[in-house]
């Protein structure tokens, strides 16, 4: 016992000699001097800000939030672009997430940077300093944009807040008007445009990224001024929700002018494109998402295995290309999305034509019905039977064994959400199938390798699968969670052209004629259609706001943009009002030896209803408890 | 050594156990607040949507001049009740498909304030009389046709003369559902007929008849029918009739 006492005493004695300097920071704390004195330190600071920038990329979904690796409830399955077994309805962003707080942390980082860098300006050239200050403003503007598109007017913080130097009362900053936030974003992006370089390291903003973001933000502001009907005014007369309709023209013009700044600086990706060659146009469109030198990329977020990764391939490949984690086919494009495109048989109302005279049309292969489909559709969606990674993606609902003399009548009445009758249909509950013996003696699995399986849903539930952004040559051994590292293109030139066209058509509708807006919109839309391999517009008479919006849906599908577009157009509650989306189910007719298609409502009966309140999302209750001056949005 | 350890552990436990002398004896909330939101024009309770329709807003000013609001959702027949409130002084108003009881102009000044300041205790009843945007009346009962569809006749009129609330009627619908919770947030769109745009806006003041969609309705069950219409204002709340049941044999 005594021995221990001495040992402990001796040990404690050592301590008394150690305390030479008491007032010193632990070496594990990074100080301003370490960061701001060198370009490398600043790059590290930037890298953190960019990585936390709230953009909706591979690592985002409304259910799971920003910068989340596990995206199995994809954004596109809330908008009607796709169906997913893990996302069965429309939603506002999950209110349990910390988006609000995370955004203000990035804003603080940007403000801190802008306030601290000038103290170290002597270490750098003035160009360097200006570029970096421009970047900080870009980051701040993009972050405010993420806030304003969710919540409307938010507290405007343009400097570093300090506690306890400032009192709690002082820090309970109330919300600014929505208009003021958009103006603030515009000013920040103008500053960024002036100070940023022509080109920048990939993943960082150039001056044109700032201009492109401005065209996006101002377009949002313009459409809200024009279409919003919700008002919330605080006691000081600040309109927290909504923008006066009179401001629509100002914002649309700002959007149009910002988009025009990129003229001649960027172009649509057409490296493998060839006029009249649908296959080349298809390949070109697929390649666009993987070419680091694409002249269309304006602002990107890079990933790199193993330090910074996502799981897009693992979650979304068709079932037959499933990797070892057991995930697949989370994004299955709806027939509604596919029907936006041209190049396959259609009824007068624009829906796909699968019957003639009340009997199903027959095809030798499932892909035949889409033989002349628009190249952009093939490049966005895996059509049933089309090839991916060298294999034909087999999607089949079941085998029809009934009589075929005189043709096959529709299996279900139009508009039915019932399951198919099983008397004449063989189907599979899951991927372990029992082959069916066909009349010619050969055997065939009832369902395709990628579905449809009636039991477990781990398959193409819509009859389609997603191709956009799926790496075409990734070996199945690497189709794993946290193993994908393709670059996310947050802003590409096609969007800027669409922003420009939309602003132009809106300006024309608002009676503005200082430029030939309609003609300009016509040019931009046709540029996009030409690259896509779609039918061109023949004249400005064809052009309406719905044409522009439809083009935007097609071009930017599955890029997490439509989620916000449906909101700012204020059409989400119309589009999603007890809506069931449509699917296309291929069947093999055993006696004909051919395929037929049944277009039907989602068999799983997922109903989508968008609540009008969600145009302005709920401010987290926790934030209001912390800062009681925040006024909640209407209806919550 | 072991003995020492156990005796220390035991004394800690005893200390921890005996330190809790004060129990949380604040009485559970037991105050009831209830009431009805009625249509000032005809004195009937104002029908609404379950969950996203009328709600009662409480601002408890006993403690703070700027409290966080507390809401009570109303039932779909326009009544509301909450039996688990604390007693206190509240400023109470209602929100829904009617002329707002509290209106703020674009400078932030309150121009209309019909909220009620009430000492809520025991069982308190607070009723509201409001002017709905639209008033929808049945014209006879829904009829089951020979072809298996259901035809509903009704009339939509303006419920208020306030010039600020004469917005266009954007939607009129005869909502059909398989249970009596029926409305814009809960209906079957395979059967529900709707009017939009000019058709909806021109419907005001006329007797309309709409027939269910999708041909003959599947039989051997009941359908619950309710007419709704809304104007383009704010959160686009619907006004409704009450619910009627049609049995299809």
TrEMBL record, chain A:
The UniProt record lists the SusD-like N-terminal domain at 91-219
The text of the family note is:
Belongs to the SusD family.
UniProt keyword list = Cell outer membrane, Membrane, Signal
Q: Where in the cell is it found?
A: Cell outer membrane
Annotated membrane-spanning segments are none
Pfam families given in the database record: SusD-like_3, SusD_RagB
Q: What name does UniProt use for this protein? A: Starch-binding associating with outer membrane
Give the matching InterPro entries: SusD-like_N (IPR033985), SusD_RagB_dom (IPR012944), TPR-like_helical_dom_sf (IPR011990)
Q: Which organism is it from?
A: Mucilaginibacter gossypii
TrEMBL record, chain B:
Q: Source organism's superkingdom?
A: Bacteria
Q: Which UniProt keywords apply?
A: Signal
Q: Where is the signal peptide?
A: 1-21
PROSITE patterns (UniProt xref): PROKAR_LIPOPROTEIN (PS51257)
Enumerate the Gene3D superfamilies for this protein. Answer: 2.60.40.2060, Carboxypeptidase-like, regulatory domain
Q: Does the keyword Cell membrane apply?
A: no
InterPro entries tied to this protein: DUF3823_C (IPR041186)
Give residue ranges for domain DUF3823: 147-244
Question: Pfam families in the record, alphabetically?
Answer: DUF3823_C (PF18003)
Protein name as catalogued? DUF3823 domain-containing protein
Q: Which organism is it from?
A: Mucilaginibacter gossypii
């Amino acid at each position: 016992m005594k021995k221990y006492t001495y040992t402990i005493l001796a040990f404690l004695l050592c301590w008394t000699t150690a305390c030479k300097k008491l007032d010193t920071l632990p070496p594990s704390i990074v100080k301003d001097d370490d960061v701001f004195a060198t370009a490398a330190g600043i790059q590290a600071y930037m890298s953190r800000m960019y990585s936390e920038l709230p953009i909706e990329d591979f690592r985002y979904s409304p259910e799971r939030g920003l910068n989340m690796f596990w995206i199995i409830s994809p954004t596109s399955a809330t908008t009607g672009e796709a169906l997913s077994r893990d996302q069965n309805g429309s939603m506002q962003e999950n209110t349990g997430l910390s988006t609000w707080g995370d955004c203000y942390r990035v804003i603080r980082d940007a403000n801190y940077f802008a306030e601290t860098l000038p103290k170290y300006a002597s270490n750098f050239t003035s160009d360097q300093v200006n570029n970096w200050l421009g970047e900080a403003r870009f980051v701040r503007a993009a972050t405010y944009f993420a806030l304003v598109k969710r919540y409307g007017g938010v507290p405007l913080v343009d400097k570093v807040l300090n506690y306890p130097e400032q009192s709690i009362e002082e820090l309970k900053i109330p919300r600014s008007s929505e208009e003021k936030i958009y103006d603030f974003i515009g000013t920040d992006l103008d500053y960024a445009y002036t100070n940023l370089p022509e080109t920048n390291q990939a993943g960082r903003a150039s001056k044109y990224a700032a201009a492109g973001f401005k065209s996006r933000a101002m377009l949002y502001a313009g459409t809200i001024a024009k279409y919003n009907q919700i008002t919330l005014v605080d006691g000081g007369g600040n309109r927290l929700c909504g923008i006066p309709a009179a401001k629509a023209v100002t914002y649309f013009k700002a959007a149009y002018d910002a988009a025009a700044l990129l003229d001649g600086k960027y172009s649509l990706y057409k490296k493998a494109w060839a006029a009249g060659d649908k296959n080349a146009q298809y390949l070109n469109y697929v390649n666009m998402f993987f070419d680091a030198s694409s002249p269309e990329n304006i602002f990107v977020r890079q990933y790199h295995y193993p330090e910074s990764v996502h799981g897009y391939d693992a979650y979304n490949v068709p079932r037959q290309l499933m990797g070892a984690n057991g995930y697949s086919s989370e994004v299955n494009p709806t027939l509604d999305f596919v029907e936006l495109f041209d190049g396959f048989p259609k009824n007068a109302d624009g829906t796909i034509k699968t019957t003639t005279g009340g009997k199903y049309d027959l095809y030798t292969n499932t892909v035949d019905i889409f033989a002349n489909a628009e190249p952009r559709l093939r490049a966005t969606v895996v059509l049933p039977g089309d090839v991916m990674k060298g294999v034909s993606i087999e999607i089949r609902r079941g085998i029809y064994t009934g009589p075929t003399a005189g043709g096959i009548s529709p299996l279900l009445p139009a508009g039915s959400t019932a399951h198919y009758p099983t008397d004449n249909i063989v189907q599979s509950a899951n991927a372990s199938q029992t082959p069916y013996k066909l009349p010619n003696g050969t055997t065939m699995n009832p369902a395709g390798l990628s579905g449809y399986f009636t039991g477990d849903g781990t398959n193409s539930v819509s009859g389609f699968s997603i191709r956009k952004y799926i790496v075409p040559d990734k070996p199945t051994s690497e189709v794993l969670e946290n193993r994908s590292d393709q670059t996310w293109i947050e802003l590409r030139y096609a969007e800027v052209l669409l922003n420009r066209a939309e602003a132009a058509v809106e300006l024309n509708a608002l009676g503005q004629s200082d430029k030939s807006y309609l003609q300009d919109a016509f040019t931009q839309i046709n540029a996009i259609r030409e690259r896509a391999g779609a039918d061109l517009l023949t004249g400005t008479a064809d052009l309406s706001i719905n044409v522009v919006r439809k083009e935007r849906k097609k071009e930017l599908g599955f890029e997490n943009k439509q989620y916000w577009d449906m909101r700012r157009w204020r059409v989400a509650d119309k589009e999603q009002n007890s809506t069931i989306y449509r699917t296309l189910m291929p069947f093999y007719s055993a006696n004909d030896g051919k395929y037929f298609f049944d277009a039907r409502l989602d068999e799983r009966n997922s109903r989508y209803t968008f609540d009008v309140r969600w145009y302005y999302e709920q401010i987290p209750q926790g934030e209001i408890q912390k800062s009681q001056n925040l006024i909640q949005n209407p209806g919550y | 050594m072991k003995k020492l350890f156990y005796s220390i552990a035991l004394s800690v436990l005893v200390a921890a156990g005996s330190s809790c002398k004060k129990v949380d004896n604040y009485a559970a909330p037991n105050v009831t607040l209830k009431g009805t939101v009625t249509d000032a024009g005809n004195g009937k309770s104002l029908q609404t949507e379950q969950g996203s329709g009328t709600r009662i807003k409480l601002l408890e000013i006993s403690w703070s001049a700027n409290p966080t609001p507390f809401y009570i959702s109303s039932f779909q027949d326009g009544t509301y009740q909450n039996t688990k409130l604390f007693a206190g002084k509240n400023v109470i108003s209602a929100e829904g498909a009617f002329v707002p009881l509290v209106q703020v102009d674009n400078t932030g000044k309150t121009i209309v304030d019909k909220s009620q300041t009430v000492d809520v205790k025991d069982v308190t009843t607070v009723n509201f009389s409001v002017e709905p945007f639209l008033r929808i009346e049945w014209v006879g009962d829904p009829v089951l046709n020979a072809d298996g569809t259901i035809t509903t006749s009704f009339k939509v009129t303006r419920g208020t003369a306030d010039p600020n609330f004469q917005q266009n009627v954007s939607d009129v619908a005869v909502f059909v559902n398989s249970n009596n919770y029926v409305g814009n947030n809960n209906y079957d769109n395979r059967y529900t007929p709707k009017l939009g745009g000019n058709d909806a806006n021109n419907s005001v003041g006329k007797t309309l008849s709409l027939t269910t969609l999708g041909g003959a309705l599947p039989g051997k069950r009941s359908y619950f029918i309710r007419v709704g219409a809304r104007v383009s204002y704010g959160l686009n709340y619907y006004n409704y009739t009450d619910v009627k049941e049609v049995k299809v044999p």
